[in-house]
User: What shape does this take?
Amino acid sequence: MSAVNPFLKTPNLDIYWVVNSSEVQIPFYRAGIAAGFPSPATDFLESTIDLNKHFIKNPSSTFLAIAKGFSMRDAGIDNGDILIIDRSLEPGNGKIAVCVINGEFTLKRLSVSGNEIWLTSENKEFKPIKISEFHDFEIWGILTFSIKAHK
Assistant: This one.
């Protein structure tokens, strides 16, 4: 799984094509890594893992993005995290989605109740957005995974 220069830079997300035409095997420590006392890590190396096979189910409709800002902080998504977004998935209540509102990209949790759609942040400092007929609105894709940026 790799990305080249962003094909779309927005104030809230930089979006990249996924290039997964090759297999990349990364060492995989199935037994886990101790967060307490150190142990010889090579004793636990069991196999390798290809991140494309585990994180990207629909390659032609999957994109990577870099999160900007802190509106989804309480969902564990911070500024600089890598987002894996699948455009082929159906949106639904409670899912985290990349949405376009009046031409601007944003990452929010969907709240659907009857005919109402709300976009909610996972940070109390940001107010929910009620989608109305006056909004130019599109659900662009559904978040499948987020990868923490090293701080």
Notes: The helical segments are 51-55. The longest helix spans residues 51-55. DSSP finds one helix and eleven strands in the chain.
